[in-house]
Amino acid sequence: MADSTRTVSIDAEQLAGRRFPYQEDISLVEGIDLMAATPGDDLNWLEDIEMLTEDGYPAVFDRYSNSFLKIYFDVPSGRENEIARKVLVKHLQDGNSYGITLKEIHCKFPQVELGPWVAESKTIGTDYKPPVLEGWEAPSGH
Q: Residue 101: its pLDDT value, please?
């Protein structure tokens, strides 16, 4: 018998344990200049970002954390993809993507923490040490 409480998708607020203000207030993303926020003045990476629907809400997919970022405000007709892109850029710039959160722990080579969307982002991954599970020993021969 299937478990009726099984989750088949994860949204960003489940990963973070909270909603983000820009999920609920369009005024927090209206001022985002997508061209200025785009590395190399090339919007091609944003072409694949579109407004989707998750659990009946408008949403944008955050590929860095493999999760949906739901949008709880009314999205103006004809601006769906623009708003989805602005919400995602805000999410990335603020460092709220779970994938960005995991970078500091698991990054094996130097890179900017918040990616190319934030010019003054710190560099992480300069001193990677593999995690060690307490009490675990590698099998002989490895």
A: 80
